Amino acid sequence: WTMACSVLMQRGCCSLGRQLHAPVTSLLAARPLTSSEPIHVDSRLNFVHGQSSAGSGSLVEVREPATGRKLVGLRISNASDTDSAVQSASSAFEGWSQLSGTERGRHLIALGHSIRKRREEIAHLEVRDTGKVISEALVDIDSSADCLEYYGGLAAGLAGQHFQLPGGNFAYTRREPLGVVGSIGAWNFPFQTCSWKIAPALAAGNTVVYKPSPLAPLTAHLLAEMAVEAGFPAGVFNVIQGDGVTGTTLVCHHRVAKVSFTGSCPTGAAIMENCGAQIKPVTLELGGKSPLILFEDADLENAVNGALLANFLTQGEVCSNGTRVYVHHSLKDPFLRACKARVEAMRLGDPLLPDTHMGAVISAEHGDKIMGFVERAKKDGANVVCGGGRHTPSEAHLQGGHYIQPTILDNVRDDMEIVREEVFGPVMCVLPFSGEAEVVELANRTPYGLAAGVYTKDIQRGHRVVAKLQAGTCFLNTYNMYPVESPFGGYKRSGIGRENGPDALLQFTQVKSVFVEMGDTPSPGF
Fold this sequence. Notes:
globular
């Protein structure tokens, strides 16, 4: 990875800069974290009808999580900017929707191939945007390519059904696109979330206006540039930058036929309310407080690996994380000892170094929020097994970054805030249990239902327990695995609809029924 960064620096302007927006993408992708010069880039981060532009609203600073330095000045899109993007998508819809599934799929597959060719560049930019470590960012970019190629393959197979009726008559259905889809993404997986949202929508024949989080705006713009380079017609995929007001404007626009959102439960509820007023379908991938159950016969090493995967990927900023770790009382002490040893050996710091295990959380404000949860948990009686504080890297250029120690809490109860509420940070809560029925009831005692995990060598018990868990995505002897072929989504307050898999493709279509009379129209009798 160090060699790759060196090559980018020697080129000065890497291949990210072939469109109108070269100043942002090429400069940031090639810039090492240790550079001390100020970063001067423009704010043309909207991408509408095949061209980069700036929003017309206020200017906000986007800061790099790993260093705290300014990355870019971001212009917020106002109502006029949003309307222009929606109008562009609307004008492109007829031509795009009339292509065959094979033709649309060819574009998606080409974009997936382009991502694979430039994965290191994109991953580097994703690290600058999010603070996550480069090893994880590379996996996210690969998942994005997988998703586009997967739906590129499914697009040609999208079809209706035929029904034979009496008298030689028949009926058939058509799977038709909805129109313009308004999509709003999250800051923890910005490139992957964008890819997951646009791929099924575009495969089904819709056009898209996508709004990334203002905390991580860069790679969505890059993906839109790459789509045009891959041959997508102008207006098929547009990006607007903005805040919550921009998102509300997009959601409520009368030409937006469907909304897909990833983010918090309160925001999801507000979007659902706005869409309900227009009878507009939604896909909502929201928060969670997921349980991870470790039975007494679980392989200890695998269980520890699963718990680490379920809590400390992307600095704990993962909606599906299994932060309520229920451990059988006979396994609890050896589990805590093993986890503590592994966590204390983790390396925090520069996220662009390949041997760093955990990077920086997204912002100073979010770091304060996480630490607030931890401090209140201590006052409520929680015992800090390890971590529990902030981390200050020794390198001077990283000391303005936002680093939180990976934290394990013991002596917590199910009624404590730290166990009930989504922290969205690197905090694991360990709770003991004795019996199967007891732990299933505890696991389901939450308004959320995004994910759940079970570790056991008893495969019958594993399937039995998974069947009883109120969660849309369950893991048996693993955790946080998301192949694009399988649907992902939640129960209860964790959302509606699914990302990935064939289910997501169908959710971006509407069904038209056609009835055909092969003879004379029967007389109504009057």
